[in-house]
Amino acid sequence: MDFTIWQKNTLKFIILGLLKHNELTGYDIKKLFNCEIGDFWQAKHSQIYPELKKLEEEKLISSHIEISGKKLEKTFYNITATGLTTLNNWLTEPQDKIPPTRDDFTLKLYFIDDKNNPRIEELFAEERLQHEEKLNYLTTRMTELFSSTEKQKAHYGHYLILKKAIIREKAQLNWLNDELNNINK
Amino acid sequence: MDFTIWQKNTLKFIILGLLKHNELTGYDIKKLFNCEIGDFWQAKHSQIYPELKKLEEEKLISSHIEISGKKLEKTFYNITATGLTTLNNWLTEPQDKIPPTRDDFTLKLYFIDDKNNPRIEELFAEERLQHEEKLNYLTTRMTELFSSTEKQKAHYGHYLILKKAIIREKAQLNWLNDELNNINK
DNA sequence: CGTATCATGTAACATGTTACATGATTCC
DNA sequence: GGAATCATGTAACATGTTACATGATACG
């Protein structure tokens, strides 16, 4: 069964999507990957800045410079009409296949294989800690951003993906706890 | 909050892990990515064959050729003692951070954002179909491979990761169905 | 005999990470 | 004045994909 996928310059569409409502600097975009958007994609500044230049060459975004303080130049980017069309086309394209999870934990579990190897319990404990931290972060963000139904409606997609991530983390934690109990029996 | 991860030549350890119990050809390894191992990692043959050569140079694996039929040469690879040590060291290393999901669906949802955009319902329907297919495949594999508790114990890691994937797919499907109901209200 | 699959490889390209670089601003 | 963070960039490298290539074998 073939679950192969592939991403063709996804970063491009993420940038366009982020610029849909606000003008942003490269640094702003970089920082957004540290928030809950980092749950589904990540990129370093060394990839973002060149991509912004490329998008500007392609006329999908435009830029202007503002001076902050005495001489610090910030480059703000805006989406163009062409950029908006490109973004909307991508949004209506059929989806890619489900990508592989690429997580270390599953991989190691698969290769340890021996039920009595004490490393299994360690792995579970480490994994639980990480998911607890993440769930914690996600629920905090949820409270911060979407305390009212009005706020939920105003950024419905954002609300949905946060909710999705929270449900995923909870299911994951339940499973981890169940298996930890099984191991100790 | 920083959830940054990174994989340093994970394919290397996957190959070592797969060779732990059986000798395999590059083609065998390629095919394994089409099974449930493809749930957590994927690689094309164009990446596998060069990696095998590299691992042999590093003396982590060894190879011998067998003739199949009249002249088809198959190269079988075995893990060496050094390879086994390398694999075991990796298994006891602390885990990487949780990687981003990198799925198209979440990304598009985030950028559509408008609750009334009919594309949201389409996206959910497409996504549901994909997860149904995947769950179907995973449960079939589970029945094929782990019908008895003896079989579960014999390949406990494999059993665990299949179970994990099934639980994940079920949770995901529940959420998708719930949200589809919300949309239709 | 034709088609699917087995089996292996390389080259060009795209994507993503690490490290190297530099300088400004804010806040204590 | 020192540290953290703001702000932007490039170069070298690692990883992963697509396309190009070739030939054998199994099965109908």
From TrEMBL, chains A, B:
Segments forming domain Transcription regulator PadR N-terminal: 15-87
Pfam family, one: Vir_act_alpha_C
Domain Transcription regulator PadR C-terminal span(s) in chain numbering: 101-180
Residues in the signal sequence: none
Keywords of this entry: DNA-binding
Molecular-function GO terms, alphabetical: DNA binding
Protein name: DNA-binding PadR family transcriptional regulator
Protein source organism: Pectinatus brassicae
